[in-house]
Design goal:
The two termini are about 35 Å apart. The protein is built from 13 helices and five strands. It has helices at about 5-25, 30-55, 75, 80-95, 100-115, 125-135, 190-195, 205-225, 235-245, 255-265, 275-280, 285-290, 300-305; strands spanning about 140-150, 160-165, 170-175, 200-205, 250. Mean pLDDT is about 75; it is low at about 25-35, about 70-75, about 265-280 and about 300-305. It has about 300 residues and is α+β, with helices and mostly antiparallel strands. The chain has a five-stranded antiparallel β-sheet.
Length: about 300
């Protein structure tokens, strides 16, 4: 467990003294002081864990800090449009001899045809979950990855979902309409031509996507600068890297947990009727008090009353 700073210990000790004073004054016993001290310590421990988690979310899966896109983009400004297109095209195609990648791409094409895009398009979590399920039904170790990161400096907080496939000893990231993640306002002709290079379906390794994100983020900056527009925070390099390259949680469930909970309270309960399930109270304290005609409150509330 993370070491609690001395100043936090002092705050907990102060709460202890107050609670002991109130306990003696009201003759309510001495156990409340320990409860309050534990509560304060627990609070600060949680703060420390959340702060550490925030720092971790601004690193890639290997613990490296994300790149800063404030670097000089002179390497792009002097490049002809055709060279930029070739660079992006090479990154999108990756290793042409990667048979595993080609097999995943072929199967994604088939799965996409059989998945209803819906009103929100291919970027919706529902579409991605259905596509993941289709790949799993075809025998691939596909999963839905959920990344989430906290605000750090000029990089705002955010969250994102994408599909990955583990095959051939490697991890591949799958995106349908990846170009949509790089759209900007008033793009220049050069930048629009870069988006035209993107295929409908992208399959690539994380290290390949990292290089692609870096060159596209610099191209975004160049395009916006040429029309006197500022770089929006959701198109900055660190923000874009956080989507695919930061820490993530992976699930292979075909049904979201929220929907599973709804089903648990509805018709799909096994061994219980829906009517009885709806009557179950998950708030035990209020249920006990209502049943016996008493008001039940917690230790902290009792101490402060």
């Amino acid at each position: 467990m993370e070491q609690i700073p001395v100043r936090f210990k002092r705050v907990a000790a102060a709460f202890d003294e107050i609670s002991r004073f109130r306990s003696c004054d009201e003759s309510s016993g001495s156990e409340h002081s320990a409860d309050l001290s534990d509560l304060v310590n627990s609070f600060f421990e949680r703060e420390i864990r959340e702060q550490k988690s925030s720092e971790d979310h601004n690193q890639d899966v290997n613990g490296n800090e994300f790149d800063d896109d404030d670097d000089d983009e002179s390497d792009l400004s002097n490049s002809p449009d055709i060279e930029l297109q070739d660079s992006v095209r090479n990154l999108l195609e990756g290793d042409r001899d990667d048979e595993v990648k080609r097999s995943i791409y072929t199967e994604v094409e088939k799965a996409v045809e059989g998945v209803d895009v819906g009103g929100d398009g291919s970027s919706s979590p529902e579409f991605k979950r259905r596509l993941m399920a289709g790949l799993r039904n075809s025998g691939f170790d596909a999963g839905l990855c959920k990344s989430k990161w906290e605000r750090k400096g000029s990089n705002p907080s955010g969250k994102y979902e994408y599909i990955d496939v583990n095959a051939g000893g490697a991890r591949y990231i799958v995106e349908v309409f990846l170009a949509g993640e790089f759209t900007i306002a008033r793009p220049t002709g050069c930048y629009a031509s870069l988006l035209d290079v993107f295929p409908r379906i992208y399959v690539g390794k994380p290290e390949e996507l990292k290089k692609l994100v870096k060159i596209m983020s610099r191209a975004v900056r160049k395009s916006l600068k040429s029309v006197d527009l500022n770089m929006p925070p959701w198109r900055r390099l660190a923000y874009m890297q956080s989507k695919w390259l930061g820490s993530y949680k992976r699930t292979v469930n075909e049904i979201p947990s929220a929907e599973s909970y709804k089903e648990l309270k509805g018709e799909k309960l096994v061994g219980f009727s829906p009517a009885n399930a709806a009557a179950i109270s998950f708030n035990c304290r209020e249920y006990f008090g209502a049943k016996h005609g008493v008001r039940v409150i917690g230790n902290l509330a009792a101490m402060l009353n």
